[in-house]
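Friendly challenge for the regulars: who can give me the C-alpha cells for this chain first? No prize, just bragging rights.
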Amino acid sequence: MNTLDKFDIAILGELQADARLTNAELAQRVGLSAAPCWRRVRALEEQGFITGYRAQIDRHKIGLGVLAFVRLDADRSTGNLTRKMEEAIRQIPEVVSCHYISGTGTFELQVVARDLDSFSQFARDVLLNLPNVKDMHTSFSLGEVKAGGALPLAHLSPVKK
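First reply, four minutes later:
Bragging rights claimed.
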C-alpha cells in the first residue's frame, strides 16, 4: 500500500461522503488550495485508491423490490471451471455483488429482482444454468439496515503518541 498522508485520507473521506463536490469545495474542506487538491485526487485515481464515481440509486424506486442472497456451490473447483463461472457471473446485470467465499459454497451473490416471481424465473433460467453450478441456496432480505456504506478510514491515520 502506498503511503497516504492526512490530506489524502481527508480527500478519500470527503469523496466517499459526496463525490459530487467541486474541486474548490473539496480543497476547502480538506485544507488545501485547489491545484494541489486536484493533483492529489488525480494521483489517488491513478494509484487505484479511487476506482470510480457513481450515483447510488434507490432500488425500490426503480421497481427492484427483492434483494436475494444466493450461495452457489460449484460442481468442481478447478481453476478453469471457476474462472468460467466467475466470467459468466460478471455478465449478469441482476447480480450486483459476488464474492468467492470460504466454508460451505463457492460464491455468495447479491441479486436484485422486481418480485419473487421474477426472481424465481431468473434463478431457474439463469443462475441454475451457469457453468459448473452444482447447487443453489437462497435467502431474502426482509429489510436493509445498512447498505452501500463508506469504507472506514481511521486505521490509515498515523498513531499519535
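The helical segments are 6-17, 23-30, 34-46, 79-90, 116-125. The first helix runs from residue 6 to 17. Your move, everyone else.
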